[in-house]
Amino acid sequence: MNRPRGTTVATAGAVVLATAGGLLTTATPASAAVTCASPVFKRTFYANTTFSGTPKGTDCDSVIDQNWGTGAPGYKGMPADNFGVRWSTTRDFGSGGPFTFTVSSRDGIRVYLDGVRKVDVWKNVATTVSKTVNVTIPSGKHSLRVDFVNWTGAADVKFAYTPRTTATVDKVKPLVPTGTTVTYSTATTSTKVSWAKNKEMDLAGYRVYRRLKGTSYSTKPIATTTSTSYTDTTVPKDGNVYYYEVRAYDKAGNTSSGTTDLGITTLDQTAPAAPKGVEDNWTMDYPDKITLYWNSNTESDLAGYRVYRSTSFPVALTPENLLNGDKLSGGGYSGPLPQTGDVYYYVVTAVDTHGHESAASGTAMYYTRDLIGPVDTALNARATEDEAGVTLTWDASERTSDDFAGYSVFRSRQPRTVAGARREEVGKGVKGTRFTDAAPPPGVTYYYGVVALDRAGNGGAPSQEVTVAVVGNTTAPAAVTGVSAVPKENGVALSWDASNEPGFDHYRVLRGTLVDGKWTYAPVQDSWTLRPREITETTFRDAVPADGQQVRYGVVAVDQYGNQLTPDTGATVTDVTELDLRPTAPPATGAPLVNLSTDAYGGLAWALSSATNENGSKVSGFAIHRWNRQTGTFDLIGTEPEDNSSDGSWYDRTQPTATTVYYRVTVLYADGTESGATETVAVTD
Questions:
Q1: How far apart are the C-alpha atoms of 90 and 101, rounded to whole Å?
Q2: Same-domain check for residues 151 and 43
Q3: Segment 259-305, tens digit of pLDDT
Q4: pTM (2 d.p.)
Q5: Is residue 531 part of a domain?
Q6: DSSP 109-171
Q7: Are 644 and 676 in a shared domain?
Q8: What mean pLDDT do residues 84-94 have?
């Protein structure tokens, strides 16, 4: 208590302000009881060096650091020399440990721990004497007493006690924190951990640990703090039990044991982890049954798994895609795989006992063959016969499949109930609800049925069977109108109006020639099948040479039964005179060639009828000539050597297009002579 010399105390009850390390205390007369809160010292002033008799004053002092100089302490009756001051306190040192007592004094100072003298500097000195003593203080509460006397001259005194905190000296662990409580808030899903403050003077702080029930504490705390509470906002929201403990640690690095475990049960808001390994299930085959395996989850509150399947990727976790309903499977799943031709995707989720479901696992993928027919069914099938044929109609299916490809119409001469009844598919890929069987042979009773097909050819449920006794049609379609014929360099171009007659199937073009004053007709033939050409368009080019002939054409519509008009029964005819592009050169004189022919693509072919001329000279080659209308001559366009074969050919790479081309071929001989010519004609596109 620093008080200048010369200050006097007016009365025993006077109030004195003491500056004890910043602590303001009230100086109290000796007769008053003074209580000082630990670890503040109770300071007592004596007017002698034996600390006897009634004290002159008592107050509280938090720091022993006074310099009275040559004056007296500021209490009435205190002398300037031969006085004593005693400081005393009892405090809790926690775990105790190594401490340092530091003193400096003019004159004498003694320090006692639990009544045992630890420092003794007790003599009258003219200068300040200092001393440091290392002391080990046991754990718990202990008393400290400091006695100071001034015999003569100036008076000053200091005392401090501090823990020694180097790791090589301090090996004493702090005490385990006390008063630990834990409180869990479901509103904030956090845990507040609180504890009482430790008594150690060298305490550095506290470490808070958390563990899941059934596991050990980590070596790493979840928090380090100097406070006496911590709020854990990271505790998992998984419905599990978690335990907490607190450990105190000092400045030397010593750590206390943990407090007694205190547990809380968290609010479960955490779904399990997605199962792993599902994506490893696969096969190169097309299985009709699959088995899935995956790695087991490790959550303590795991209830099981759910399996989902879909033909869409990614798989939606919807009730429609859930395979095992509310029943949770174990570590695997086995079940049938629909043979619909789709790619099926499988995922698995984990579910805990609180109903939380994980995200989807990786995806397993399987290919299937389509062996399942569509759900589509033709309803209320019925049939009628008219000139168009037998027309079936039905009502659209009430349900439809994604892979619906259309309806097929089947015809049989026996009911489907007859074992082995043969069916003929007369209509395929019908998208609507109507189909006409254009030409069922007449005079027969037929049984018709309609079946929906998918893209893989699987059939759905057949329609009701419809019975029709087919009479057939003998009426020819009406005459075709709008027939015109225009002569071209490469034939005659015909056109006509489209026929909308019931049962119409195709057109035929009839070419008429005048023989002995009478027109004779023949259908234009297909060059490959040598059968009458069946034309479905309303235009046609008759590729005949432009040789100036007068021709009469007829166009007739043919129905499904082959009924048609003729020029004699009303078919439309039209006359046309072909262009005349024949060569004006003298006629060909003939060559020893047979079967000379050409085509619309420049190819010529022939065969030799004799290998020598009349002089016995052998054939050496052939010369090919083409009529040039501009010059009025047959131009030589190429030669072909004899290859000792009876056949020959040549290709005209410069053949004119869309016209009539006349060729002549001659034979060349080894003696330098040339035969007469053989002529052929080509009509080009």
A1: 16
A2: yes
A3: 999 999 999 888 999 999 999 998 889 999 999 999 999 888 888 99
A4: 0.48
A5: yes
A6: EEEEETTEEEEEE-S--SS-EEEEEEEEE-SSEEEEEEEEEE-SS-EEEEEEEEE---TTT--
A7: yes
A8: 97
Instruction: Record the tokens describing residue 132, joined without a space.
Output: 């440091």
The tally of CA atoms less than 13 A away on the side-chain side of residue 60 is 14
Domain of residue 509, residue span: 484-577
d(CA 596, CA 677): 11
| Same-domain pairing of 21 and 159 | yes
Q: Determine the average pLDDT of the residues in 149-177.
A: 97
* pLDDT tens column, 223-253: 999 999 999 999 998 888 999 999 999 999 9
Task: Report the pLDDT value the prediction gives residue 362, as an integer from 0 to 100.
Answer: 96
d(CA 139, CA 176) in angstroms, rounded, equals 12
SS3 content of the chain, % helix, strand, coil (to 5): 0, 50, 50
- The structural domain count of the chain equals 6
Same domain, 232 and 352: no
- 50 and 142 assigned to the same domain: yes
Task: Write down which residue in 203, 233, 265 finishes a domain.
Answer: 265
Domain with residue 76: its CATH number is 2.60.120.260
Under the banding of pLDDT at 50, 70 and 90, the label for residue 200 is very high
Domain match, 391 and 353 both: no
pLDDT of amino acid 328: 67
Give the end of a domain, one of 412, 435, 470. Answer: 470
Instruction: Say if 627 falls within a structural domain.
Output: yes
The CATH number given to whatever domain includes residue 403 is: 2.60.40.10
* Structural domain includes residue 544: yes
- pLDDT for residue 503: 86
> E-strand spans in 195-296?
203-212, 223-225, 229-232, 241-250, 262-265, 289-293
The DSSP 8-state label assigned to residue 657 in this structure reads S
Which two three-digit tokens encode residue 248?
A: 């105190």
CA distance 579 to 491: 8
In angstroms, the CA 198 to CA 80 distance is 43
> 74-78, long-range: CB within 8 Å, 24+ apart, which pairs?
74/1, 74/3, 74/7, 74/9, 74/16, 74/27, 75/9, 75/16, 75/27, 75/45, 76/8, 76/9, 76/10, 76/11, 76/12, 76/14, 77/9, 77/47, 78/45, 78/47
d(C-alpha 524, C-alpha 451), whole Å: 40
With tokens 């569509």, the residue in question is 374
Task: Please report which confidence band the pLDDT of residue 104 belongs to, taking 50, 70 and 90 as the band edges.
Answer: very high
Q: How far is CA 34 from the centre of its chain?
A: 80
Same domain, 618 and 659: yes
* CB-count exposure of residue 125 (10 Å: 0-12, 13-18, 19+): middle
The set of residues, in sequence order, having a beta carbon less than 8 Å from that of 192 and lying 6+ positions away, is 182, 183, 185, 229, 230, 231, 232
Which of 296, 279, 274 has the alpha carbon at shortest distance from 356? 274
Per-residue pLDDT tens over the stretch 453-510: 998 899 999 999 999 999 988 899 999 999 999 999 999 999 999 999 988 999 999 9
Whether residue 590 contacts residue 637, with contact meaning beta carbons closer than 8 Å, is answered with no
**Domain for residue 84, yes or no?**
yes
Asked whether residue 50 falls in the same domain as residue 86, the answer is yes
